[in-house]
Amino acid sequence: MFNFDELLMSLRLSFPVPASVEQAENKVVQEGENVEVYCNVTTGIPDPTVLWRKVATDELIKGNTLKITNISRAQAGKYRCTANNTCGVDSTVVDIDVQCKNITRSFYIKPYLEISSCRV
Hints:
Blueprint: H1 4-10, E1 17-21, E2 27-30, E3 35-38, E4 41-45, E5 49-54, E6 60-62, E7 65-68, E8 77-85, E9 88-99
């Protein structure tokens, strides 16, 4: 005998959905810090491929998380996260501003005194 309830429970439809990412927040960090920026993919069927790319150099970083250890000022700039699947592409750009490390130096200035004498 035909069981309609069993048929409904085993039927699962999947429709392709374009990739979509949430806007990432810009970062301001001190030189030498570690930086992590997560690319939040909000939709995508099939699962999107996620890549980070430094805009100025085209340097490629795979995965949802951009991790930079001991960041330098040369690594500052715009990074684009791109999510891509068979239905579409979406991206977001984050700007990482690397502030110069504060350097404290102490020094002593020797006073300079010049005495001149005149004879009259």
